[in-house]
């Protein structure tokens, strides 16, 4: 990571405190400022919080519990003028859903990391997501699930 990225703020949303702790440790070690949320509040409250803190990037689990709340929040964030410019990465084990949405996700510049993943894959997708937001002609943001 370049030193200019050191102050970038990443919000990680996942329903597992253990996963959030792991993301915090990994991304803090890479120089990012990390905040987390376990999706324990209503979606409208979480959306308001996100629109107020305006993180530089959101890493979001697509499936929260057994529901697609992460995908619902993604739609809400991308449809709102207040938040549609915040880069998003879906970090999920829902391979079939991601494959079905692949073109749509790429058109929206939403990065994807399939669980389980290696740290270097996550960092690559973070970099590509920021590049794509600044350059719509960048390569696909879809991580090859077979490459993990």
Quick rundown:
The protein is an alpha/beta fold. The protein is built from five helices and five strands, in the order βαβαβαβαβα. β1, α1 and β2 form a beta-alpha-beta unit.
Salient structural properties:
148 residues; five-stranded parallel β-sheet; Rossmann fold; 43% helix; alpha/beta
Oligomer: single chain
- The neighbouring-strand order within the major sheet is 2-1-3-4-5
Compute the gyration radius: what is it?
A: 14 Å
Shape: globular
Main sheet attributes: strand count, strand direction, barrel closure:
5 strands, parallel
Low-confidence sequence ranges: 135-148
What string, H for helix and E for strand, traces the elements in order?
A: EHEHEHEHEH
Q: Roughly what fraction of the amino acids lie in strands?
A: 15-25%
Task: Using the coordinates above, name the CATH class.
Answer: Alpha Beta
Overall mean pLDDT stands at 83
How many domains is the backbone divided into? 1
Number of helices: 5
Number of strands: 5
CATH topology: Rossmann fold
* Secondary structure: helix percent: 40-55%
* CATH H-tier superfamily: Response regulator
């Amino acid at each position: 990571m370049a030193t200019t990225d050191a102050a970038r703020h990443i919000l990680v949303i996942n329903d597992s405190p253990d996963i959030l702790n792991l993301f915090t440790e990994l991304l803090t070690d890479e120089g990012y400022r990390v905040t987390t949320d376990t999706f324990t509040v209503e979606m409208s409250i979480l959306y308001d919080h996100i629109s107020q803190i305006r993180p530089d990037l959101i890493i979001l689990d697509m499936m929260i519990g057994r529901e697609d709340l992460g995908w619902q929040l993604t739609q809400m964030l991308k449809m709102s003028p207040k938040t549609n410019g915040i880069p998003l990465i879906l970090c999920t084990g829902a391979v079939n859903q991601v494959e079905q949405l692949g073109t749509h996700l790429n058109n929206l510049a939403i990065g994807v990391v399939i669980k389980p993943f290696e740290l270097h894959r996550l960092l690559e997708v973070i970099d590509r997501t920021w590049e794509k937001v600044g350059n719509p002609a960048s390569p696909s943001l879809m991580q090859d699930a077979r490459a993990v």
